[in-house]
């Protein structure tokens, strides 16, 4: 390879170190600039990761000729405009979840990137785990047969201090939602990806415990495109919080997995093979999130090979479209068709 793929990071908050670690660890990427509205935060970040350039205005970063791709690590409600500006500046884009919080803005992001000839990818790092890849393979291979019931339980704990720690948290304008749009979106992405998508939903959402604009608790009943029924439960108000858990029930077997691995894997053909499905996740020195490494590496390869990233914009928006439909159903108290 003639040269490394050069990254810039926009936003130096909580998630950005995972991008920096991955970029530093990948043999064919390098981190050349970071930006944050808080210049001091950008300076500290640059010092920590030995980045030569730090800025307060992301548009100055986009104007740099030696940047190929930007990681967008800003509050959810800002993703769309930054991505559009980046596309116009001819920079490829790796966006943190969610792609954006508005359907129309996601469409504009995708269309602008296609028009400008740049790649648009989104980070859903749970897809990168060995367990999830094996479960996806099992579904594609019909190992548990036709799916009948598919459930996602996304139960976390965030206290009021968490929401008060940043002005954008728990707001419709910048967070775009609560337990589902922020914390639950990863599990919802897995649900959509593994089941093949949702056709309709009936839901209830509310702030039952926290003083926030958006929901801290949500329940929804779904019908999947493949005919299966399902439930998604999401909250940030249960203590202690639970592992993200996905339950898949087919005509020929059951797969249940969570953050601790496979909990149950039983099929008519092979019986209980739960203990046999022991998939070790790869570890990379200096990288806390193997999922972020996977997406950074994939984006670089997508540029080199001139292909779409593993989760392009059209795929990334599906989880958000489902969440927005859940919110609409709760507001209208009617079933919503996707």
UniProtKB/TrEMBL annotation:
GO terms for molecular function: nucleotide binding. It comes from Bacillus timonensis. Residues 5-121 form the Gfo/Idh/MocA-like oxidoreductase N-terminal domain. Residues 133-255 form the GFO/IDH/MocA-like oxidoreductase domain. This is Gfo/Idh/MocA family oxidoreductase. The lineage of its organism: Bacteria, Bacillati, Bacillota, Bacilli, Bacillales. InterPro entries: Gfo/Idh/MocA-like_OxRdtase_N, Gfo/Idh/MocA_Oxidoreductase, GFO_IDH_MocA-like_dom, NAD(P)-bd_dom_sf. It comes from the Bacteria. SUPFAM superfamilies: Glyceraldehyde-3-phosphate dehydrogenase-like, C-terminal domain, NAD(P)-binding Rossmann-fold domains. It holds the Pfam family GFO_IDH_MocA_C3.
